[in-house]
Amino acid sequence: MSLNTNATGFFGHPRGLSTLFFTEMWERFSYYGMRAILILFMTTPAINGGLGFDVAAAGAVYGLYTALVYLACLPGGWIADRFIGQRRATLIGGIVIMCGHIALAVPTLGTFYVGLALLVIGTGFLKPNISTMVGQLYSSDDHRRDSGYSLYYMGINIGAFLAPLVCGWLGQSAGFRETLHRYGLDPGMAWHFGFGAAAVGMAAGLIHYVRGAHHLGDAGQPPPPQSDGVARNQLLKGLASLAALAGLIAGLVALGFIELSATGLGDAFGVILLVITVAFFTWLFTMAEWTDDERRRLLLILVLFVGATIFWSLYEQGGSTLNLFAERSTDKHLLGYEFPASWLQSLNPIYIICGLAPGFAWLWIKLGSREPSSPAKFAIGMLFMALGWGVMIGAAARAEQGMLVSPLWLAVMYLLHAIGEMCLSPVGLSAMSKLAPVRVAGLTMGVWFLASSIGSYLGGRVAGLYDTFSLVKIFSTLTLIAIVSTVIMALLVRPLRRFLSAPRSP
Ligand code: GLU
Ligand code: ASP
Description:
Strand content: under 5%
CATH superfamily: MFS general substrate transporter like domains
Bound molecules: glutamic acid, aspartic acid
Structural class: mainly alpha
Order of helices and strands: HHHHHHHHHHHEEHHHHH
Helix content: over 70%
CATH topology: Growth Hormone, Chain: A
Number of strands: 2
Distance between the termini: 22 Å
CATH class: Mainly Alpha
Largest sheet: 2 strands, antiparallel
Number of domains: 1
Number of helices: 16
C-alpha cells in the first residue's frame, strides 16, 4: 500500500485527490465553456462573427466532435495502461487540450477544425486516465473510495458551472461586444475570446497538475516495460486500422458514396460507431480466458452500457437542441438584463452542486439497505429523463405558437434531467471501475465513455433536425423513447439483481 493511500489532507481524503479535483475542474471548465457556445457559434451568421452553418451541418459537426471526444477515451485509456501510465497521459492530454482551445481562439475555419481535432485527442488522453487515477489513490478495501469519486464529481460540476458563465458572457453578451467595439475591435471576435477563456482554464488546470503531482504517490505510474512487444504490435495494428479506415472513407467520398459534407460524414460516422461498438464488445468478451466471475462482471458492464447510451443520447442534447431552444425560443430577460442563452448551461451543474449531489448522498445513506440497486437507479434515472422531455413538449407547443417561452421551462427540465443524472452518472462511473477486471481497468473506464460518445453523437444529430421537424414532434418522440427505455430497464431490474447475487468464483 502506498503512503498516499492513508493520507487525509483533502476533506479526509488523500492529498492527491485535491490535485486531481482541481485539474479536472479546470479541464471541465474548458470543455463545458467551449461546448456552451459551440453550436451557437456555428449557427450564428458570419456577419455576427459566427460560422453561418445551417442547423443540420452544425448538429452533425457538434455530434461528430462531442462523440469523438468521448470515443478517443478508449485508445487514451489503453495507451496509458500499456505504455505511458495515467499520470503522463493526463499531462500530455492537458497540453493538447490547451493548444486546441488556443486554435479555436484564432478566427479562421481551418483553425476551428484543427482546434476540434486537438480537443478530441487531448481529452482522449486526459479524461479516462485522470478518473482512473482517482480510484488508484485508495486501496481496494478503502471505504472512502466512493465518496472520493463523489467529491471529484463536485469538482467536475464546479468547472461546468463556472464555464458557461465566463465563456458565454465573453462569447455572446452585448456588454462584451460593446467593450470590443470601444477598443476598435470587431465585436464578432467575441466568440474567440470565449474559446480563449477555455484555453486559460486548461492552462490553470495544467499548472495545478504539475505543482500537485508529488501528492499522487504511486497513482498513474507507467506499467513495467513488456519485452514481448505484444502491446506495441497491437498499437501498430490499431494505427494501421485507423489509416485504413481513413483511406476507405476517402475512397468512398471520391467514388461519391459518401457526400463530402458535415451531414454526409456524420452519417458515415454513425455506421462506424455502430461497427466499433459491436466489434469492441465481441473483442472484450473473447480477448482473454475470463473466469466466470469476470465474465459476469463484463456482462453487467454491457447492460449498464446500453442503459447509459440511451440515457446520454437524451441527456446530451442539453448543449445542442436545448441550447438552440434557449437561443431561439426563450425569453432571456431577468430583472431588466438580457442574459446569454449559454448561461442556462450552468443550471445543471449548479443544481448538482447546491442540492442534488449532497441530497442524493444523504438519501442513499438514509435508505440504508433499501438503497436501490445500480440497475434500479438506472431505471429511475431514465424516468426522470422522460419527465424532463415531457415538460419540454409543453414549452415547444407554446414556442410553435410564436411566443418566447419563460426560461422556467428549461429550468424545470434541466432539474429533472439533473435528478436523472444523479441516479445514473455517479453509479456508472464508480460501478464501471469496481466491476472492471484488473487487466482492463483503464479500458473499461473507456466503455463508460463509449456510451457517452454514442449519446453525444445522437444528441448532435437530433439537434440537426431542429429546422426540419416540428419541435413538438421531436420532443414527443424523445419522451416516448425515454418512457419505453424506463419500462424495459425497470423490467430488467429483478433478473439483473438475481444474476448479480449469484455466487462469485474465487
Ligand atoms: N458530466 C460528467 C463529466 O463531464 C459526466 C459526463 C458523461 O459521462 O458523459 O464528467
Ligand atoms: N453534470 C455534468 C457533469 O457531471 C456537467 C454538465 O452537464 O454541465 O459534468
